[in-house]
Amino acid sequence: MIANTNSILHNPTGSFSNAIVTLFVSSEGVTSERRFDKGLTIAQLKERLEPITGVPCASMKITLFSKTDAPLCSLDDDAKFLGFFPCENFMRIHVTDTNPHRVKGAFTDVSQVKKFEISEEEYEKRNDSVRAFKQRMKLGRFADGASTSGSSSTVAEDEYKEDAEKIKVGDRCQVVVDDAGGLAKRGVVKFVGLTKFKPGYWVGIEYDEPLGKHDGSVGGEKYFDAKPKYGAFARPNKVEVGDFPEEDFDLDDDEEM
User: Fold this and answer.
1) Residues of the chain with pLDDT > 70: what percent?
2) Do residues 60 and 75 lie in contact, with contact meaning Cβ atoms separated by under 8 Å?
3) What is the pTM assigned to this prediction?
4) Can you tell me the distance from the alpha carbon of 86 to that of 65, in angstroms, rounded to the nearest whole number?
């Protein structure tokens, strides 16, 4: 219940020691913090509240609430100053539209707004979109070396697939690294495919000598059978199939698992 206005109006002369007051403004779908001059008339206050709340001045009702959110009074005299009422910092004024014909939520309910929609294909063709701008400026996922998580995942899974299709289990092979002086390890292909330890295609090899790193298992997952220290994985582009003389060298960690 709103208190009696006459009993709480505290400044009938319009002389204000603190000219600026900070108030919370609330209305249907609107809440904000604003600063007002106590020297404003209520009519002038309504003019400032109209663009904030969307409620027309003519049908605007303003209620003042205390810091504890208890209703104090209605600011219903357009000729009186704001400071005439017991306004203090961080109180709240609530704006209500008294127009009985107003449609509730007409300006705040976005579900009533007809949205512009465009297909992905049409959007891709536009040269005035945010995506087109980012592509031209090479920003975000369009930056050099960047890609979306989805596309990067697909690329990673397909990496070395073409080279892997040329190799089959049982092939004799040698593993070559260009920066290792042309040295090679010879063995038998025991596995070709995707693994859990890294994306992309890998070739599992059992070497003729104990030049590997494991027995065909990585991370607790068994991919093929090999004697301990005879098994290794190499990228398909580092594997050549055929009969080759035995060579001995160590691959770096980036090219052998």
Assistant:
1) 76
2) no
3) 0.40
4) 10
